[in-house]
Structure formats: structure tokens, C-alpha cells
Design goal:
The chain is of the alpha/beta class. Helix content is 28%, strand content 21%. The chain has two domains: 155 residues, Periplasmic binding protein-like II (D-Maltodextrin-Binding Protein, domain 2); 159 residues, D-Maltodextrin-Binding Protein, domain 2. Strand 3, helix 3 and strand 4 form a beta-alpha-beta unit. Helix 1 runs parallel beside helix 9 and helix 3 packs antiparallel against helix 13. It starts with 5 loop residues before the first strand and ends with a strand. The N terminus is likely disordered.
């Protein structure tokens, strides 16, 4: 199937999640138990990611405009739609072309598919040095990135609808006893592709420590996957290992999708009762929300030491030169410009707008806070125009 794009005014997305708006309506008998691995992303090859179902066809970029290709995490869809329109109003000579996926998929488009992308924005800043610093562009031999700016945070929460099972019963005190029940459907993002997925695994590990109940993780996940997501607790660190193949067993209460934003349509259709989502996304879509304690939502500076008790490893053969290991930490979104970007000047202008007063106000209006102090990794390599907006990241 050829790749098409969504066009709404200046907006272009090739959004993985929007395919569900069509599929949910068509799949009358589907309960959303799982997507076979090969329909999410081929793991044995470096084939392109699955082609989403388009809703409209874009018009070509006028020859007089600079096309600026922006790939961002799916949790940024709505604020970045507005950001695109506001930025193009300020800079009418630039045509922003947004595309959203799970954050690891965003980076794969650069490092595996070698697409020319001008701005990369991920929901986990640590992905940029892990997967882009370590991977050279075959054309230039240079790393795909040499710097990033940690600019925004978020919190994990549990989204649901008034008609969800046990909606009248679940609350901030009992959520971890309700969600493992076998007669409900709980959605999580695939931890191989989306930080929301591996952060959800972290939440249950940390909940065991917070509530001193060391069976919570197994109650939620044990026996639900064809290949187990293993859990090993040591004195100082709990390690969760995600295997090459991640698919749930038929009839399992866990539902996996490639990106957390895909779960929204399933909640709205009633195919899910609950889903782990970022608080900003839950509020943007007007859903009901269970606020997780600060010790678990991965968004509090006061609990950063507590978060470090857990680590998630991805056991992938396709990461032959990199061993992805994600340590529990406060959520931090990252932005960079790939070394093979075609429109460096426009990319710098876009990031400066995002980090400036207009971008900050727009993000906060969408319930997505920016850090007060924006920190740059490898500050010396950051473009000069952006150095004025950030501070050097402290050295470990």
C-alpha cells in the first residue's frame, strides 16, 4: 500500500494511531486482544513500519516554501498540530510536515530507514544518545545526532470512560487491585516501540515497593504474554526484560498497541476499559483519569531516587550494536536535529519557537508542561541560536 498523508489545513500526519478510527468501526467481532508482531513491525528485517490508513491526501508543498519534516512522539499530536499552525503563521515561508509515532519508531525512521528528517522529538530524551549518537549515517560517517535538549515532562496516569467496568469502584487507593481483574481489558503501549509501554512496566515494579505487595507485577502481567516479559528483583535494582516477540495470549486482559495514542480510540469505542496514558493526553481527550501517586507517575522531581530502583531492558536482535537499557527516572522529552537534516536553519527556528514563550504557552494550554530550565546534552554542539535558550546538562 502506498504511503499517504493526512492534510488538515497546514497539518500533515502519517499517524500510526489514526488507523484505529477506521479499523475499530470495521472489525465488529474484534476484541482487541493482540496484534501479531509482524503487523506492528517486522523484527527479523529492517523493513519500513506498517503503513497507516490515511484519511485524506496531502497537497504538494509549494515550490516557494521550505518543507520542514518533523517526527514526534504520538503523545504530542494535538499540541504539535497547534504548534505547526502557529509557527507557519509566524514563518509563512516554511511548510511544517508533522508525522507522529511511538518514540523508538520515530528514531528508526532516521537510523534504520535513513529518511531525511529535520527535527526529531521523543517522549524519552535518553533514546537520542542511546540510538542516534551510537549510529553513524552511512553517507557521512557522522553520528545521526550529537546533542539533544531535554525540554518537557509529563506524568503517567490511567485513562477510562464512565462506562468502563468498575468505573464507579476504581480510585487512587485501589487501582492496582482493580486493573489485574481478568474480566476487564487494560491497554498498554508496546514497550519495544513506545516509552509509555516500558514506563508502565516500571509503574508496577515501583508499586510493589510503595505498597509492600510483591505480587502486584505478576498479578498484572504473569501468564498474559506468549513469551514472558521477565522480572528479576535484586537488592538494589529490579530488572524487567522485554523479549524479541511481544504478543498477548488470546483472551488475555492486557491489550498491546504499538503506540499509546492508539489506545485512545479503543477506549472511546469501548474495546478497552482502562489504558495507561500520559496525563496530558488524557486531559486533551476529556477522558476520566486515575492520578497515580507521585512515587509512581514518573513525573515528580522529589521521587527521582525512588524511580531508579527499576530498569527495563529490550532484548532485540535488531539492536545488535546497542543494548537498550532504560533506567527509572523522571519523564523528560527530548528534541534534536539529525546530522543529515536538509533544512538546518528552519529546524533551528522551529525548535526556538517551541522552546520560546509562544511554544511554552501553547504546550501548557495542552496540559503539557515544559521544564523551567531546559537542559542541553553536549551543549557545545547545540546550534548557537538555541544555546541562548538552554543551560548545559550537569555532568554525572
Amino acid at each position: 500500500m502506498p504511503t499517504l498523508f493526512l492534510k488538515e489545513g497546514p497539518l500533515r500526519f502519517r499517524i500510526l494511531s489514526l488507523c484505529l478510527l477506521v479499523l475499530v468501526a470495521l472489525a465488529a467481532g474484534c476484541q482487541g486482544d493482540y496484534i501479531p508482531t509482524e503487523t506492528i513491525s517486522p523484527m527479523e528485517t529492517f523493513s519500513p513500519m506498517p503503513t497507516p490508513v490515511p484519511t485524506a491526501v496531502s497537497t504538494p508543498t509549494p515550490a516557494s516554501k521550505t518543507p520542514l519534516v518533523v517526527f514526534c512522539a504520538g503523545s504530542l499530536i494535538l499540541p504539535f498540530d497547534q504548534l505547526e499552525k502557529a509557527f507557519e503563521s509566524r514563518y509563512p515561508e516554511i511548510d511544517v510536515q508533522n508525522e507522529c509515532h511511538g518514540s523508538i519508531q520515530v528514531i528508526r525512521h532516521v537510523t534504520d530507514l535513513h529518511e531525511k528528517i529535520d527535527v526529531v522529538v521523543t517522549a524519552d530524551a535518553s533514546l537520542i544518545p542511546m540510538l542516534m549518537y551510537a549510529t553513524p549515517d552511512p553517507e557521512s560517517g557522522k553520528p545521526y545526532a550529537e546533542w539533544y535538549i531535554r525540554f518537557a515532562t509529563n506524568k503517567l496516569g490511567v485513562a477510562y470512560q464512565p462506562q468502563s467496568k468498575y468505573a464507579a469502584e476504581i480510585n487512587t487507593e485501589n487501582w492496582y487491585t482493580v486493573l489485574p481483574r481478568p474480566d476487564i481489558k487494560v491497554g498498554i503501549a508496546d514497550p519495544r516501540f513506545d516509552p509509555s509501554g516500558y514506563r508502565t512496566l516500571m509503574v508496577f515494579s515501583l508499586a510493589q515497593e510503595l505498597y509492600q505487595n510483591y505480587s502486584l507485577y505478576n498479578q498484572m502481567f504473569q501468564g498474559k504474554f506468549s513469551t514472558p516479559i521477565t522480572y528479576f528483583a535484586d537488592d538494589d535494582l529490579t530488572t524487567i526484560t522485554v523479549p524479541e516477540i511481544v504478543e498477548t495470549k488470546p483472551g488475555a486482559s492486557i491489550v498491546i498497541r504499538g503506540a499509546s495514542i492508539q489506545l485512545i480510540a479503543l477506549l472511546q469505542s469501548g474495546d478497552l476499559d482502562f489504558a495507561f496514558e500520559y496525563e496530558s493526553v488524557i486531559q486533551q481527550h476529556g477522558l476520566q483519569m486515575i492520578h497515580l501517586p507521585d512515587a509512581l507517575n514518573l513525573g515528580s522531581v522529589d521521587f527521582e531516587d525512588f524511580y531508579r530502583q527499576v530498569q527495563v531492558n529490550l532484548d532485540f536482535r535488531r539492536f545488535a550494536s546497542v543494548k537498550p537499557e532504560f533506567k527509572g527516572e523522571r519523564i523528560g522529552y527530548g528534541v534534536t536535529i539529525p546530522s543529515n537534516a536538509l533544512h538546518l536553519e528552519a529546524a533551528v527556528q522551529y525548535i526556538a519557537y517551541l522552546l520560546g514563550p509562544e511554544g511554552r504557552a501553547l504546550m501548557e494550554a495542552n496540559y503539557h508542561p515544559l521544564f523551567e530550565t531546559l537542559l542541553a546534552n553536549n551543549f557545545a554542539a547545540v546550534p548557537q541560536a538555541l544555546q541562548e535558550l538552554v543551560a548545559p546538562e550537569p555532568q554525572p
